[in-house]
Design goal:
It is built from 26 helices and 7 strands. It is α/β, with parallel strands linked by helices.
Length: about 675
């Protein structure tokens, strides 16, 4: 069974890598860009459309506000990118927002950031995969009918790819990400050339369509609220920016410089694609409505509803149709790589979440297992936990993008705001001691950038909470405090354990116990029992006795008679059990020994079978497991398992231990302890 499991693991994950090969898994900029930036880049597939969808609630006339909303989103994005370039230079260890907030604002602020990022990473995977499934499901009916199952299957596939290591996952995602970047930038460039230079008239498939306004005669406040809601939805384009600051250790040296360069490249490309798509969408007359109301609210140019069979193409597909023509090769390529990038966008979270989990585990806020790397030098436990969380969300929300998006971006703007506030304090603290004028000038500039970023992201956070709280953001506002309290509880547990285990200088912990009383548990006389007796005698305890529980009177007498007939030089003690219980009489006897001599230790030797098949575990050792589980909680009691390997556990046929095979002339238990070395 173990061989089969290991074979499956090696096929899926790959061969194990030595710790010394860690440098081979570090990423150059050309691979780091698709690995860490796929989430931020893929947001142009839905962020521009979300702006138009929200504005369409008041009718197509409100599309006139979309350029201003887009400009506001671009300003925030450039501000965040510029701010995070300061972060990666100041804190290159990979702690990102968590480290910045912890060092400058305190542990509670750091844990708040950590809980926000963890929630947002899980939502990144769920939203990206669900959005991609929607995209494919529009043309493949089977996918549309089984959205949650298909989405979960894709998450499992992404998990396997990431478990193979950073380098292999980067190579797997580099080609699709670059294909998406080139195709969308080419779309924007060619569309802009046709529009501005050639003077062509671009017409999207929905040009001339109308939207039935759900909100009419809006007051100034209601109109402003709608525009702010569109802005908060468009800010989904900023998700993933923080992943690079969390993943600095994965870059090749010089790590900070390479991370900052990659961050700048990602920001410029994302801004160009975002602005180009929404600009071409408005120029070509793209019209979209809320997905659940498309059949009724979206009207054709003649005023008739589009009907339930109408498929609303995403904004990129409509722009590609207007620029390249429906059915053209470039239209197919743009549509295909856009669908693919939505799946691969989840990879950003798969690289950010495990690193953050490792840092939190090192600080004792998460289980220590999250700190260690797996066979492929990836943080395997963090990858698996992220995948499980995303699968639960996809299953619980039935992979519904509109419902998941309402939970999105709250966490990331919490971390943005606290991180940039922490950076302002960081530069202020360093300015108090720095005397070099050139360095001080750089610090003043960095502090100004971070201050502007803190104010900007705080405003956006307020807008997001104000506009999205009642439609789903409240779930995140509950999940974050729960994670915060859980991490505090884990840290408290680790601190209590460390304090309890700390050596007290006033007390000599190395004082030997007065005596060691050995007990060998016996059910019948067979090879495992004799081996346990021999091993117990070899440890030279102060006293030794064999203990059995007399459940059946005839069996107990037979055992006693055979014991005396064989002349085993260890006294046999029979414990009564009127209710046929095995575990409790032994526990009571051990407790009585400890009560009689508190300074003594009691060592219990338990013979156990070692089996080779999973189903054999169900047939053996159940009493031993129960006993060990109970004895481990008894102070002053040591439990020693003495294994006996059955033939089914022997993986090397013909090369068994001669003693285990019973071929030794004189059994070990019959040899006096003083003469065993002869």
């Amino acid at each position: 069974m173990a061989k089969v499991t290991d074979l499956v693991k090696r096929v899926l994950v790959g061969r194990a890598l030595r710790s010394g090969q860690l440098h081979e898994q570090l990423l150059p900029k050309r691979v780091a860009l698709p690995v860490f930036a796929s989430d931020a880049l893929s947001s142009v597939a839905y962020a521009p459309q979300e702006i138009l969808v929200i504005l369409s609630l008041a009718g197509v006339s409100f599309y006139s506000y979309s350029p201003w909303v887009a400009i506001a989103v671009v300003v925030v994005m450039l501000t965040v990118v510029a701010s995070y370039r300061q972060n990666v230079h100041a804190y290159p260890s990979g702690g990102g927002d968590y480290e910045v907030a912890t060092v400058n604002l305190g542990k509670n602020a750091g844990l708040t950031v950590a809980s926000a990022l963890m929630v947002d990473y899980v939502l990144t995977v769920a939203v990206s995969v669900a959005n991609g499934v929607d995209y494919v499901g529009a043309t493949v009916p089977f996918v549309a009918q089984h959205k949650p199952a298909v989405a979960i299957a894709i998450v499992v596939l992404l998990t396997i790819v990431n478990l193979r290591g950073l380098r292999e996952s980067g190579a797997a995602f580099a080609i699709p990400t670059y294909a998406f970047m080139i195709s969308v930038l080419g779309l924007v460039a060619w569309g802009g050339f046709r529009l501005l230079v050639l003077g062509d008239d671009l017409r999207a498939p929905t040009a001339g369509f109308q939207v039935v306004a759900e909100q009419t005669n809006l007051t100034a406040f209601a109109a402003a609220f709608l525009v702010l809601r569109a802005f908060s939805s468009g800010c989904a384009a900023l998700t993933g920016v923080e992943a690079i600051s969390n993943g600095v250790p994965a870059f090749r040296k010089p790590k900070s410089k390479n991370a900052a360069t990659t961050l700048l490249m990602m920001g410029l490309v994302a801004v160009t694609m975002f602005s180009g798509i929404i600009g071409l969408g408005l120029a070509s007359g793209v019209t979209v409505a809320e997905p659940q109301h498309v059949a009724v609210d979206l009207l054709r140019p003649d005023g008739t509803p589009v009907g339930p069979d109408y498929y609303q193409q995403p904004i990129i597909s409509q722009v590609a149709d207007a620029v390249f023509g429906s059915g053209s090769l470039m239209f197919v390529i743009v549509s295909a790589v856009t669908a693919l990038i939505l799946f691969l966008a989840a990879n950003t979270a798969f690289n950010g979440f495990p690193v953050l989990g490792s840092i939190l585990a090192q600080d004792r806020y998460l289980p220590r297992q999250l700190h260690t790397r797996g066979d492929r030098l990836a943080f395997s436990n963090g990858i698996v936990i992220l995948a499980l969380g995303a699968c639960l969300l996809l299953w619980g929300f039935q992979a519904d993008v509109s419902r998941l998006l309402n939970l999105y971006i709250v966490g990331v703007f919490v971390s943005f705001t606290l991180s940039q506030t922490g950076m302002v304090i960081h530069w202020t603290r360093h300015l108090k001691t720095e005397t070099d004028l050139r360095v001080r000038h750089q610090m003043h500039r960095s502090r100004a950038i971070n201050f502007f970023g803190a104010v900007m992201t705080a405003v956006v956070l307020v807008v997001v909470l104000f506009t999205k709280f009642l439609v789903g953001a409240w779930i995140v506002c509950i999940a974050m405090p729960i994670l915060f309290l859980m991490m505090k509880g884990i840290r408290r547990h680790y601190d209590n354990v460390a304090a309890e285990l700390e050596v007290d200088e006033r007390i000599d912990e190395s004082i030997l116990p007065a005596r060691n009383h050995a007990i060998v548990l016996v059910s019948k006389i067979h090879k495992p029992t004799l081996r346990a007796l021999a091993y117990a005698r070899a440890t030279r305890p102060s006293t030794i006795e064999a203990v059995t529980v007399g459940v059946e009177g005839s069996e107990a007498r037979t055992l006693q008679e055979e014991w005396e007939r064989r002349g085993i030089p260890v006294p046999l003690k029979m414990l009564d059990s009127p209710y046929r219980e095995i575990t409790q009489p032994i526990l009571d006897y051990v407790k009585a020994l400890r009560r009689r001599s508190p300074r003594d230790v009691v060592t219990v030797f338990i013979p156990e079978y070692v089996v080779g098949h999973w189903w054999e575990h169900l047939l053996h050792n159940q009493s031993a497991l129960r006993l060990k589980a109970r004895l481990l909680f008894k102070p002053g009691v040591m439990v020693t398992s003495v294994p006996w390997q059955l033939h089914s556990s022997d993986r090397l046929r013909g090369r068994r231990d001669p003693y285990a095979a019973g071929s030794v002339r004189r059994p070990w238990h019959e040899v006096e302890p003083d003469r065993r070395d002869e």
